[in-house]
């Protein structure tokens, strides 16, 4: 499937909200939930504006992954950019109907190519121990697992094991 990654903008709020709502249960099978408040559109719009402000000052960059028809199939973000150390964290999620098509792999490959232009020379990632697909995507893109830890997810009321990854560019 041919994809593009496009920087998040103000007009994306409705489409992104629909994408998040449509895939909530699927995402929450492998990543910590975002809480019920996130799924109220008024709250979502506030959060969307906050993301755009963060992007405007260069602290983070948020991208929508779209197919050839412009449908949102996922998202990928480069966040918590440290301009002094040149580090950032990556996160991504692919909608349920679009998994196992190489989309996350291709989107991460493209983001890794963009990162040096954003003054990022090292990218960190984390995923849950049961998210095998994400672990494979990180491995295919040159990320190495560097540590493991357990965290309590207050929203879900569960303890999760996380694998931490890193890649130097």
Shape, principal axes of CA atoms: globular
**Strand order in space, largest sheet:** 1-2-3-4-5-7-6
Report the mean per-residue pLDDT as an integer.
Answer: 93
Return the CATH architecture: 3-Layer(aba) Sandwich
CATH superfamily: Gcn5-related N-acetyltransferase (GNAT)
Instruction: Kindly identify the CATH topology.
Output: Aminopeptidase
Roughly what percent helix? 25-40%
| CA-atom Rg in angstroms | 15 Å
**How many beta-strand runs?**
7
Q: Return the string of H and E elements.
A: EHHEEEHEHEE
Largest sheet: 7 strands, mixed
Q: Unreliable stretches, pLDDT < 50, 5 or more residues?
A: none
Q: How many discrete structural domains?
A: 1
Amount of beta strand: 25-35%
Distance between the termini: 26 Å
Can you characterise this structure?
This protein is 31% helix and 35% strand. With 169 residues, it is α+β, with helices and mostly antiparallel strands. It has a single domain, classed as Gcn5-related N-acetyltransferase (GNAT) (Aminopeptidase, 3-Layer(aba) Sandwich), CATH 3.40.630. A seven-stranded mixed β-sheet has the order 1-2-3-4-5-7-6, with helices on both faces.
Relevant terms:
169 residues, alpha+beta, Aminopeptidase, seven-stranded mixed beta sheet, 4 helices, 7 strands, globular
